[in-house]
Amino acid sequence: MRRPLAALAIAAFTLSLAGCGSAGYLLQSVQGHLAVMRAARPVPEVIADEATPAALRDRLVLTQRMREFAVRELALPDNASYRRYAALDRPVVVWNVVAAPELSLKLKTWCFPVVGCVGYRGYFDRAAAEAYAAELRSADPSLEVSVYGVPAYSSLGKLPGDFFADPLLSTFIAWPEGELARLMFHELSHQVAYAAGDTEFNESYATAVERLGGTRWLDEHASEAAREEYARYDARRRDFRALTRRARERLQAVYASADSDDAKRAAKLRIYAQLREEHAALKAGPWRGDARFDAWIAGANNARLGVQAAYDDLVPAFMALFEREGRDFARFHAEVKRLAGLPADERRATLAALMTSATARH
Fold first, then answer.
1. Is the pTM of this model over 0.85?
2. Which of 22, 150, 279, 362 has its CA 20 to 30 A from that of 293?
């Protein structure tokens, strides 16, 4: 591919991911993505390099086993994604800016020509993300804004050639085995089915794939130590999900009520105080002092809870669909892809029916 065409493809893609903003914003998106791609080296080359630490070499070997498993067992794409490795000089690859109104969990959206409207705006530089968040707060002081780091992102398989395929990154390569597998399966699933403008559909589907695939990997290919490590990690994450789900449900009930805005604000304060109290009780009790979620709780607001909902709320529907399709990944992906192509109202009606069936079974 000639460089001008490559630059055009990158520009169109990053614009669609990040928003139709200023030329400066587009430039940082293009430069940031290209910098990640340029840093990537073929995994066999990194493994063969004598300068590669043994721990990293072992992890890279493990990822290639996971990659083959994803194709063979999960019917995920067999392409150049996660066949290269990029060492970055930062703890995350992108910082996302999200925002929500004072009395709603509905995320502000930015709309793009390829992926539709999404509830985030991404930056490859943290200072730039924080500056944009400050702009949003200044323009509308009632808006609740959050900036959070992202360890990986998917190019959705939209860019041509192996050079642009999603690489493994230093931002997640050292994660526990179960978490590493889940992340790879999640991001690969975005290349299978993607509904433009429906973040909740896309992320809940990918979350379902990561949970199903991660469980199968751990059960069939991981060591007992890796399974035990994951069980400890996941138990507290499930506690955290339940904790924040309760807060979302309470807030949604308040925001949807006929109460005055002042009454809603007072109830909101009580719900967030309860969230902090329940977190403190978990930390002091079964979590044995685990501070992993302290920063999230300290910065909890409508935007953070809104993002979490996008990844969680429709997962039971996709789990029910997987069962309906005979636990066959190829059939499951095909049906999700069909749903992604439906009009939004029809797609949501189908998911609502699946949610009902999932609830009935439990």
1. yes
2. 362
